């Protein structure tokens, strides 16, 4: 491993601080899902992926990541900045006028580390498949990772992509579902049931693994295991259980923090629960 | 009136197929994607010669646009192919976010555009696609006039970096342009120089404009005819230069009068050179089943409609 679990958890603590500070700073954004995916994105960028912070759009020879549920941009931006793609201080411009750190990720403003715009849901898996197909055509043996919300699976385009990938043996793709059971209007099972995602993906021909996304040791192992399954004719689905708002006690498990910003007191409380490890911006 | 003749009729979609095949031979990064319409889009030659670069998506147009956007990451030049309706309206948001806003080098190639798809009727025709695509920032919109020009356009967009919408049709129409022409994106083609009226036409309507020009000449009206194969970016210089001379314009397109070429010309003239204009276009209507010729007549897109529009617009000149 490049880092110990403790070192990775220290980064996660700082990422959580970044998330709540970013959303507080502009009084806008999506802290819940961002906090829930802090371990996953930290593991991915600091441990799992082979990538360079000397950003090139074509990503030749590198592992690529696509965020499909673009509203959890705070965690993505924080991890990119903390990895060295751009200055951490730029996080302070999140959702503010003339910023590269747009509300939802975009290539339009030229922020290093972003390869596709996302925000309108359901498009990311298709894009990830396209990038993976290109890697195969280019005889580039690096991998493509993607992250999707569970509620996002209600968008039909996903199922077009989920059907396509196994049929076309896209086996250099590791997609992760952030399985937190929440969406804006409430629990996914109340809004539109997802039923058994594992059997659904397996029925389409994916190799499905499960993981606990809020346990660093577990998610690191799961991603390593997922990598060992690539190149065997099937795409890999990491069905990752998380809790929305994990790491901030008053946000955990509630869809109410999907898109709500903390006030000053709530920010102080959230920060007190996550020690500063790498310096705030 | 300059004389144009033709020895054969061919469909513009076959021009696309031939251009795609040649682009594939020239550049190994060209890939082609289709949504269960390989034959309709004339992609067979490409698919046969480059099976590894041909991706059959199935009936899943949204997925096709996303995969195409993803394939640009790593240097591929994807050409997506399906009917114009399913190439645009069905996947507008996918094109907007994953292609246009993300500035991906995807070529959205759309067959069976306009009324001339014919018998399938309004669900398979689209008369709004030019408007939808031209409203997207950064999207190039091309609607060539015959087989040769469609082939040349297909080769040209393979070399252009950025998102492009290429529109073509199903019926066989006169082939009257040069087979070895150079296609310049955004550069209008002067079909005939004249002094009394400017006829600005695009796509299948260019040949009808030529026929109208001949009939107008017999009536003593000297028409300048411009082929606008690139609707966006519009060759504003060519249009303004012509209008300075003629003082009035008729725009011709196989598209709804709302949102098409005519509106682009009107926007330009309203600020730069206010001029009388008449629109030969579908009058805010869906199409219906019928033969292409029957539909062009019923919806007012025949040569006679251009002649009448010219006679009307000339009377409005100061």
UniProtKB/TrEMBL annotation, chain A:
SUPFAM superfamilies: Thiamin diphosphate-binding fold (THDP-binding). The keyword Transferase does not apply. Keywords: Thiamine pyrophosphate. Signal peptide: none annotated. InterPro entries: THDP-binding, Transketolase_N. CDD domains: TPP_TK (cd02012). Its cofactor is thiamine diphosphate. It holds the Pfam family Transketolase_N. Residues 10-270 form the Transketolase N-terminal domain. Belongs to the transketolase family. This is Transketolase. The lineage of its organism: Bacteria, Pseudomonadati, Bacteroidota, Sphingobacteriia, Sphingobacteriales.
Automatic annotation (TrEMBL), chain B:
CDD domains: TPP_PYR_DXS_TK_like. This is Transketolase. Keywords: Thiamine pyrophosphate. It comes from Pedobacter cryoconitis. Residues 10-175 form the Transketolase-like pyrimidine-binding domain. Its cofactor is thiamine diphosphate. InterPro entries: PDH/Transketolase, THDP-binding, Transketo_C/PFOR_II, Transketolase-like_Pyr-bd, Transketolase_C. Belongs to the transketolase family.
């Amino acid at each position: 491993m490049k880092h110990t679990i403790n070192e990775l958890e220290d980064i996660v603590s700082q990422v959580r601080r970044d998330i709540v500070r970013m959303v507080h700073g502009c009084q806008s954004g999506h802290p819940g899902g961002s906090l829930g995916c802090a371990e996953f994105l930290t593991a991915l960028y600091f441990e799992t992926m082979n990538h360079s912070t000397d950003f090139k759009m074509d990503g030749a020879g590198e592992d690529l990541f696509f965020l499909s549920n673009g509203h959890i941009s705070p965690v993505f931006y924080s991890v990119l900045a903390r990895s060295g793609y751009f200055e951490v201080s730029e996080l302070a411009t999140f959702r503010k006028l003339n910023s590269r750190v747009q509300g939802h990720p975009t290539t339009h403003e030229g922020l290093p580390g972003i390869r596709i715009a996302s925000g309108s849901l359901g498009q990311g898996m298709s894009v990830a498949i396209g990038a993976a197909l290109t890697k195969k055509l280019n005889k580039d043996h690096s991998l493509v990772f993607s992250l999707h919300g569970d509620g996002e699976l209600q968008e039909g385009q996903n199922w077009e992509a989920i059907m396509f990938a196994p049929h076309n043996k896209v086996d250099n793709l590791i997609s992760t579902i952030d399985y937190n059971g929440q969406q804006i209007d409430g629990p996914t099972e109340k809004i539109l049931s997802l039923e058994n995602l594992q059997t659904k993906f397996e029925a389409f021909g994916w190799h499905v693994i499960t993981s606990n996304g809020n346990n660093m040791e577990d998610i690191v192992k799961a991603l390593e295991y997922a990598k060992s399954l690539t190149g065997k004719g099937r795409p890999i689905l990491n069905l990752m259980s998380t809790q929305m708002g994990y790491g901030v006690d008053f946000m955990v498990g509630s869809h109410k923090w999907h898109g709500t910003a903390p006030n000053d007191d709530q920010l102080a409380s959230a920060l007190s629960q996550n020690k500063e490890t790498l310096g705030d911006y | 009136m300059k004389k144009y003749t033709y020895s054969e009729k061919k469909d513009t979609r076959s021009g696309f197929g031939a251009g795609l095949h040649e682009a594939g031979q020239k550049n190994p990064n060209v890939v082609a994607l289709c949504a269960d319409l390989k034959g309709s889009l004339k992609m067979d030659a490409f698919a046969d010669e480059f099976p590894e670069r041909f991706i059959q998506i199935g009936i899943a147009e949204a997925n096709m646009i996303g995969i195409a956007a993803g394939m640009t990451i790593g240097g591929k030049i994807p050409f997506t192919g399906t009917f114009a309706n399913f190439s645009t309206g069905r996947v507008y948001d996918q094109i907007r976010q994953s292609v246009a806003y993300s500035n991906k080098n995807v070529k959205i190639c759309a067959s069976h555009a306009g009324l001339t798809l014919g018998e399938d009727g309004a669900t398979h025709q689209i008369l709004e696609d030019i408007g939808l695509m031209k409203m997207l920032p950064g999207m190039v919109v091309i609607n060539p006039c015959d087989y040769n020009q469609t082939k040349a356009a297909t080769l040209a967009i393979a070399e252009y970096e950025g998102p492009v919408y290429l529109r073509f049709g199903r019926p066989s129409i006169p082939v009257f342009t040069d087979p070895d022409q150079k296609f310049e994106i955004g550069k209008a083609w002067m079909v005939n120089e004249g002094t009394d009226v400017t006829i600005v036409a695009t796509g299948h309507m260019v040949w009808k404009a030529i026929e109208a020009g001949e009939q107008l000449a017999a009536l003593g009206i000297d028409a300048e005819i411009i082929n606008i194969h690139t609707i966006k970016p519009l060759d504003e210089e060519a249009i303004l230069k012509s209008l300075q001379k003629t003082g009035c314009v008729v725009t011709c397109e196989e598209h709804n009068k709302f949102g098409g070429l005519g509106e682009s010309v009107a926007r330009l003239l309203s600020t730069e050179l206010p001029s009388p204009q008449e629109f030969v276009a579908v009058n805010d209507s869906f199409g219906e089943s019928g033969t292409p010729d029957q539909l062009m007549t019923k919806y007012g897109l025949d040569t006679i409609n251009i002649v009448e529009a010219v006679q009307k617009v000339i009377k409005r000149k100061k």
